[in-house]
Specification:
about 230 residues; mainly beta; 8-stranded antiparallel beta barrel; 1 helix; OMP/PagP_B-barrel; membrane; signal
Length: about 230
């Protein structure tokens, strides 16, 4: 009887040992934790395109008092390219940018039979400094700097011919905008700028006139960040 009890006890201890060894081999492995996406870094060079509207005021005055001063405005299409570089310091982003765009803004000074006498703003550009605050992949910013553009006076004389005087204007610009990073390389922006191109003197046959140009520019665009 004692031998049977001893054998039964030994078998029980052996079984428990085997079960314990197998349990010891079953280690717990935690589920892998997904890595948090890296915060967007705005530092770097970028190239892009933009399009929008240039709401332009043309103001005319005659130094020789040959006619009354007058003004007119027109909303034209605007489309062009931009390039710049950003530096990010914590949440503060500073940068430099140059942009250049074609515009279709123009006003008519009247029909003289051979056609419309027109003043056109043909090209518009700027070189500006930007400063903004980054909320990860959203950047809100202000900008300001030098603006420049080419405008042309055109007087038709018949037969498809016209007298023209083209001048470059220089002035200043200031604006605000927001830019959003869709990926690590592609960003989209929306922006408003006020542009003051100052005045230039244009020759009108035997007279001349000063033309002062200002514009409100609203545009959207895409940038590729390298």
């Amino acid at each position: 009887m004692n031998i049977r009890l001893f054998a039964l006890a030994s078998a029980s201890v052996l079984a428990l040992g085997v079960v314990g060894a197998q349990a010891a081999d079953l280690t717990y492995e935690a589920a892998p934790v997904a890595a948090a996406p890296a915060a967007f870094n705005w530092t770097g060079f970028y190239l892009g395109v933009h399009a929008g509207a240039a709401i332009t005021d043309f103001e005319f005055s005659s130094p020789q008092n040959l006619g009354p001063d007058f003004s007119d405005n027109n909303t034209g299409f605007l489309g062009g390219v931009q390039a710049g570089y950003n530096w990010q310091f914590d949440n503060i982003v500073v940068g430099l940018q140059t942009d250049f765009a074609y515009t279709s803004a123009k006003v008519s000074l009247g029909d003289i039979g051979a056609g419309e006498v027109e003043q056109k703003l043909e090209w518009l550009g700027s070189t500006t400094a930007r400063i903004g605050y980054a909320f990860d992949n959203l950047l809100v910013y202000g900008k300001g700097g030098v603006a420049y553009g080419q405008s042309k006076f055109e007087l038709p004389v018949g037969g498809g011919l016209s007298l023209q005087d083209s001048q470059w204007h220089t002035g200043w610009t200031a604006g605000v905008g927001a830019e959003y990073a869709f990926t690590q390389n592609l960003t989209g922006l929306i922006e408003y700028n006020y542009v003051d191109l100052g005045s230039q003197d244009y020759n009108f046959l035997f007279a001349n006139a000063d033309v002062d140009l200002t514009s409100n520019v609203i545009k959207a665009g895409l940038n590729y960040k390298f």
